[in-house]
Design brief:
By secondary structure, the chain is of the alpha+beta class. β1 and β2 form a beta hairpin. α2 crosses α5. Helix content is 29%, strand content 24%. It is built from five helices and eight strands; from the N terminus they run ββαβαβαβαββαβ. The strands form two sheets. Strands 6-7-4-3-5-8 form a six-stranded antiparallel sheet. It has a two-stranded antiparallel ribbon with strand order 1-2. It is globular.
Length: 156
Amino acid sequence: MMLHSTRGGLHVPIWRRVPKRWAALTNWTPRLPDDALVIRGGTLLPSDLQRSVLKAIKELRRPALSIFSADVLIPADLVESAGSRLIHTSVCLSTAGRLRKAGFVLEQTFEPPHYSVWLSETNWHDQLSTFRSAFDVPVPVRTLGRVQADPGRPSK
């Protein structure tokens, strides 16, 4: 097995040739605390979620939904750290604990604060309503600076 390749006369270790997005999938990251804030862009329409899952299957080779999460109390802080990756004008709020209680696994993929919520390979369609119910109603991003999340709230 070749562990090095030659590019321009230099030896390049194989781990340096792995694309960043795949390397991010293999990195170990600490578990998010249950009260870590989670946001999902958009209004969680079933058709939008289904389109996102199909995109994840194509890119990640397994069904997943993207979220942003960090151990912060102010949603605006999380929106700011997501930056231009959060393209929606509204978001839905939850916590890592609410998603776990609903049976989902969260794993950091790509650059923080991006996480994937892994879905079942066989019945991911059935999990979309459970995913939706783990979130609060959508709120406009522009109002998040005035709202503090309540991570201790009971799940719905």
